[in-house]
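User: As part of a screening pipeline, I want to sanity-check one entry by hand. Below is the sequence and the SMILES for adenosine-5'-triphosphate. Please return the complex as C-alpha cells so I can compare it with the automated output.
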Amino acid sequence: MYLESLKLINFRNYDDLHIEFNKNINLIVGKNGQGKTNIVESIYMMSIGKSFRTNKDREVIKFNRKSLYLAGQYKNNYRNGFIEIIIDKNKKGIKLNKVSISKVYELLGNLNVVIFSPEDLMLIKDGPRQRRSFIDKEISQIMPKYYNILVNYNKTLHQRNNILKSKNIDYALLDVYDESISSYGSDIIIFRRDFIKKLNIVCNDVHKKLTDNKEDLKIYYKPQILVNDNDSKENIENKLLNKLKLSRENDLKIKSTKYGIHKDDIEIYINDFDIKKYGSQGQQRMASISMKLSELNLIKNEVGEYPILILDDVFSELDETRQKLLINNLKEVQIFVTTAEKNHMNIFKNNEVTIFNIDDGQVVKIENGGI
Ligand SMILES: Nc1ncnc2c1ncn2[C@@H]1O[C@H](COP(=O)(O)OP(=O)(O)OP(=O)(O)O)[C@@H](O)[C@H]1O
Ligand SMILES: [Mg+2]
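Assistant: Here is the complex for your manual check:
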C-alpha cells in the first residue's frame, strides 16, 4: 500500500500544505526543528487515529489556532481510499471515503504504517520493559484480540497488588485473582510463544540479508515459568497458578507480584552468543533493525501487502553499507526517510526517489533531483 498525497491545515508548524508522494522513496530533508517529524507524525495519525508523540490530540493543532484538518489519499490492494481527520479543542472526527466513522477501530487496517525512531535502535540494550512493549505492540497490530487480554491482565494484576498492600488481606479474593491472572497470563504466554516462533523465522531471514549472510539471529522467549512448544493452555495455566501460590508469602512481604507475564523477556543471540552481553553496539543496532523490519514481513504475511515504512532520523545512524543493504531490500515498500544530513543521497542513486526540502514548515519538492 502507499500514500499518494497529504493535505495538512494547521497541523503543528504547517499552515496549509498539499504534497504528493513517491510510491517508493520519499526523502524528507531539513535542518533540526523545521518540521520533518511533523510530516511523518501526520502520516502515522492516519493509520491509527492518533499521534505517536503525544496522547493529547490538541497538541498537534498549530499554536493559536482552534482546529486542524488532515487528509490523505492512499491506495492498497483493495481500494483507493481517502482518510480525513478533523480535530478541534474538544473533539476529533474521522472520515473514511467521506463517511464519518464512530470508532477508531474502523480506521485500522486501511493504512498500515510501521515507524522506526532512534529509540528503537536501543531495543536490545534497553531493559526488559522495552522489549516486552515491542512484542506487545507487534502482536497487537496483527491480532487486536491480544491487546484486550493484556488490558484485562494488567487490570487484574493491579487489583491483586492492591490486596497485597491492604491492611486486612482478603485471602478468598486473592485466590480469585490468582486464578484469573493465571488464565489471562496463559493466553498471553501462548500468543507470545507462537508469535516469537514466527518472528524467529522472518527475523533470521531479514538479518541474514542485512548482514550479507554473516550472522545467524535467534530470539528466545524467556517467560517466568518453563513453557514447552506444545504446552496446552491448561498446562500453562496450572504452572502459573502454582508459581503464584508458591510466591504468595513473599509477594505479601514485598507487597507486589513478583512473577508473571509482566516480567517476561526475550533474549537475542547472534551466531550463538547473547548479544545483549557480548554484541558490539553496531551488532545490537542491526539486530534491533532486523527485529523491527520483520514487522513489515509479518504484516505482509497477515494482510497480503507491505505496510508503509517511516524511518524517522534512523538512517544517518547506520554506516553506508548497511544503508545500502536496507534500501535494496525494501524495493516494494513505500518509505519515508527523514534526515538532517544530505550527504548520504548517493545511497538512493538507483531508486525512484523524491526529495522534500523542509524549511520552517515550507516544503520544496524535487523529483529525482540532485541524484
Ligand atoms: N502545535 C504546534 N504548533 C506550531 N508549531 C509547532 C507545534 N508543535 C511543534 N511545533 C514546531 O515544529 C517544529 C518541530 O518540528 P519537527 O519535530 O518536525 O522537527 P524536525 O524537522 O523533525 O527536527 P529534528 O531534526 O530535530 O528532529 C518546532 O519548531 C516546533 O516549534
Ligand atoms: Mg525530527
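Points to compare against the pipeline: The pocket of adenosine-5'-triphosphate (ligand 1) is lined by residues 12-13, 30, 32-38, 59, 61-63, 313, 340 (CB under 6 Å). The first helix runs from residue 36 to 48.
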